[in-house]
Structures are given as C-alpha cells and as structure tokens.
Amino acid sequence: MSKKPAFLKMIPNILTGMNLCCGVVAVILAFEGFYHIAAWLIIAAAVFDFLDGFAARAFKAISAFGKQFDSLSDLISFGMAPAIILYGILKGALIIDELKPEETEIITLLILFLPVLIVLSSAIRLGIFNTAENQTKEFRGIPTPANALFIASLPLILAYQPTLTAMFLIINVKTIVAVIILQSILMILPFRVLSFKFSNFNFKENIFRYILIVFVLIAIPYKGFVAIPAVYLLYVLLSVIYGLTHKMKEKA
Questions:
Q1: CB-hemisphere CA count at 13 Å for 24?
Q2: Beta strand extents in 94-224 (DSSP E only)
Q3: For the chain, what is the mean pLDDT?
C-alpha cells in the first residue's frame, strides 16, 4: 500500500517532464522551419503544464523541486520555443521587405535579436512567480503559457486558415516587433491577472472567468485558430477590469 502514494507523487514531475520534452522538440522543429508543428507542441506543453499543477494539488505532491522543475520547463516551452517561432516569422518578413537577414546592417540584426526579449521576460516572470507569495489565486503579469499560446496561434493561422489579410498582418515586421515588445512588457508588468484556480464556483466572484470560458467555447469552434488572438485580448482586458474592481473594493 505504501508504494502507490509514492508513485502518485511522481506523476506531477512526470507530466512536467513531458512539458519539457514538448518544449525541446518544439525548439528543434522551429529552428528547422516547422513552425506550425512547433506550435502544436507548445499547446501540448501547455496541457501538460496544466495537468502537472492539477496532479500536484490532487495528490498533495507539491514540492520545492517540482516548483523549480516546472519553471525551468516552462522557460523552454513557453519562452524559448515561442521566441524562435517569432524569429522565423521575422526572418521571413525581412526577406519579403527585401531586407536580407544575412546582411550585417545593425537595424536588421537588432530586429532579428528582438525575440530574445521574450525569453528574458519569461525568465523574469517565472522568477517573480517562484518567489512571490501573492500568486496563489491570481497572477501578477501575463503568465508565460498564455503568452506562448498567443504566439503559437500565429503559425497555426498561417498553416490552416491562411488569408491575404492574415498573411499581411502576421508576416509583417512591424506587427511582430509590436507583439514582442508588448508581450514582454505584459509578462513583467505587475498588474492583477485572472487565474483559473477556482476556490469556489460562485457566479459573482468568478464572473470574469465565466465570461472568458463562454467566449472560448463559442469562438474557438466557430472561428478556429483565428479566435485565439481575440481570446487572448479578451483575457488581458478582463484582467485589467478585474484588477481595477479589486483595487476599488480595497479602497472602499
């Protein structure tokens, strides 16, 4: 009987390892130009990331090692892999703009190095999360998985729902540069962000969570990958409103 609990306590770390494996393979495939497959692996990593946290709480297997292992895995899956996808899109956009990536112009090189900000901001975000004591029921700054899923949606849109508008907006230097800068800021900006760790299912207390869940259930089946950026924007907007309402309650 004593062996079963010991095995159960290994499950969260096994799931975290699966997250890491998905992230590493995503990095390799993104380097090889298979951006949409890398995006699928980022989604798989996000599923494993959710499951490892769920399993850790369910089996009471939360540990200091598990927390650090999870963050290191997240840095690869949700920091490095999305950054390389953005690098690839930027490289393609620069070629379309007739700015050859192999040239040594300082501006071109700086643009190509911008995705490093995603990795840096992800590392800072995860470091803050690991050392903070106020992020059990809500987050401070956009979580790295949310950022990664938004970025992963871009090659998926290009692969499965390509339109002239989508290609013009995504394979665009200005768009990708804006995405990198904005996402990097949102990850380390200490504003309240919705977490989906329900302490209860009271409608009034969880209204913003329910709004987002309903939107996801309607938008994703109807619009597919194109809906993911809209879901992300709604998530950010609802988080801002959520933070403002909490601040008003604290002052009252």
A1: 8
A2: 138-140, 192-194
A3: 89
Between CA 95 and CA 111 the distance in angstroms is: 13
CA 204 to chain centre: 27
Q: At what angle do helices 11-31 and 35-58 cross, to 10 degrees?
A: 170
Q: Identify the three-state secondary structure at position 64.
A: helix
Q: Could you give the dihedral angle defined by the CA atoms of residues 84, 89, 93 and 98, in that order, rounded to the nearest 10 degrees?
A: 50
Residue that is written with structure tokens 């969880």 in the block:
206
Kindly report, residue by residue over 184-209, the tens digit of the pLDDT.
Answer: 999 999 988 988 776 667 777 789 99
**CA 129 centroid distance within chain:** 14
Q: Which of 22, 15, 58 is nearest to 39 (CA)?
A: 22
Please give the DSSP secondary-structure letter assigned to residue 76.
I
Neighbouring residues of 105: CB distance < 8 A, sequence distance ≥ 6: 99
In the chain, where the domains are located: 3-135+151-190, 192-252
Q: Quick one: fold of 3-135+151-190?
A: Four Helix Bundle (Hemerythrin (Met), subunit A) (1.20.120)
- Tokens of residue 124, six digits: 């800072």
Rounded to two decimals, the pTM is 0.90
* Amino acid letter, residue 208: F
Indicate if the alpha-carbon torsion angle 218, 222, 225, 226 is positive or negative.
Answer: negative
The residues near 160 (Cβ < 8 Å, ≥ 6 apart) are: 36, 224, 225
Cα–Cα dist 164/96, whole Å: 14
